[in-house]
Design brief:
The chain is built from four helices and 24 strands. It is mainly β. Strands 19-18-13-14-22-15-21 form a seven-stranded mixed β-sheet. A six-stranded mixed β-sheet has the order 1-11-10-23-24-12, with no helix packed on it. The longest helix has 11 residues. It starts with 17 loop residues before the first strand and ends in a 9-residue tail after the last strand.
């Protein structure tokens, strides 16, 4: 997404999915058809469906209700952890019976924008596919007085799914704000604080989902390989991993730390790695939005970009390294971008949406791990 509390990788995206939560008593049933949302849409239509006894499923994308206020379009972000609403001036937050103004101003700065507002405590409700209602009681949220840099005026806010330390916002006592995932777990709705995230490349006629409380093996083609969250800060305060990168078998970034961010619309590398990648491809052209440009002949010569995490290689084919083809005419735009910072700062790379389109990601707060698995779209040749 455009928003992020990390001063790197400036371009962010909103993406849409079904949301499912696995409660304490059951495993994830693959027959419920939760993967009903194409990630091809930037933001989704208007209706929330969620939660059966076996699942919390927001089948109409990224929506929920805060007390009496329907939230239709939010940016879902594992790169930040604070949830706030009220970004769309046409749909202001209305305090309902469960809402409480905590009379505490707060703000969050992002790479390409900012939020400022007031802290509230309110209930967040998901409506079940079968009609059942599940509620997170007294979730601390922000209500925007201003919001700058959103990708659209129709965006209501941000659903922060990063780790609890991934925001500068604190309560009156200086403590981090528990996230939606934290409270689903602490209030007993799910048995483990886990997110399973599945995304598919555009134009493949497929669907994506988020699962609260587990993940779906129905869409993976390998076992999930887990690594511990990095101890290197600041990446380790969020969903951070240790990794190194190769292009065509040549190392372009030695072992370092970065984050896995559902909202980033690119894969971001530090200066020296980006320049090594750019040199190996043989291009110095950028379009007016800062995307690296190659010709169709250069595309034919692209080699795999490999991310090595925990001894496993996660390869990105030439097709996985380019933006969707509908924007690639007459030139081809690459998804790899420059953080404009050197390595060694403790958060050197971002594995964003293009990576998550190819690999299922499991964010496990309970065990402080991140897991990755291949999917049916890992090696697909169309984008």
């Amino acid at each position: 997404m455009f928003y992020h509390s990390n001063p790197m990788c400036p371009y962010k995206c909103l993406f849409c999915f079904a949301i499912v939560a696995l409660p304490i008593v059951s495993a994830y049933p693959t027959h419920l058809g939760i993967a009903k949302m194409p990630f091809a849409r930037v933001w989704g239509p208007k209706r929330t469906n969620a939660l059966t006894r076996n699942n919390i499923a927001l089948e109409k994308r990224d929506e929920f209700r805060v007390d009496t206020t329907q939230i239709d379009n939010v940016i879902v972000d594992t790169g930040s952890s604070y949830t706030w609403v009220g970004g769309n001036p046409k749909k202001p937050y209305v305090q309902g019976p469960a809402g409480e103004n905590l009379n505490q101003p707060n703000q969050e700065r992002y790479t390409t924008g900012a939020y400022g507002g007031w802290a509230f405590s309110d209930d967040i409700t998901f409506e079940a596919v079968g009609g059942a209602i599940y509620t997170i009681n007294s979730q601390s949220i922000g209500v925007a007085s201003y919001a700058a840099g959103l990708p659209s005026s129709e965006i209501d806010g941000i659903l922060g799914l990063g780790r609890v330390g991934g925001s500068s916002v604190r309560d009156r006592n200086g403590n981090p704000i528990p996230t939606v995932l934290d409270n689903l777990y602490s209030q007993g709705t799910i048995s483990s604080a886990v997110l399973g995230i599945y995304c598919v490349p555009r134009n493949n006629g497929g669907f994506g989902h988020i699962i609260f409380g587990g993940y779906s093996s129905a869409v993976t083609t390998s076992s999930v390989s887990y690594v511990p969250i990095t101890s290197t800060l600041p990446a380790g305060s969020n969903w951070g991993v240790d990794a190194y990168f190769k292009y065509g078998g040549r190392t372009i970034l030695r072992p370092t730390s970065g984050i896995v961010d559902t909202g980033a619309n690119s894969i971001c590398l530090p200066n020296e790695a980006f320049m090594a990648y750019q040199e190996a491809i043989g291009t110095s052209q950028f379009n007016d939005q800062g995307w690296l440009v190659i010709s169709r002949d250069q595309y034919e010569n692209l080699l795999p970009l490999s991310v090595f995490i925990g001894g496993q290689s996660y390869d990105l084919s030439p097709n996985a390294q380019i933006l969707p083809r509908y924007v690639n005419d007459p030139w081809i735009l690459l998804v790899v971008r420059n953080t404009d910072k050197p390595s060694g700062l403790g958060k050197d790379f971002v594995l964003g949406h293009p990576f998550i389109q190819r690999y299922y990601v499991v964010f496990n707060q309970t065990s402080s791990q991140i897991g990755f698995a291949r999917t049916f779209f890992t090696d697909i040749l169309s984008n």
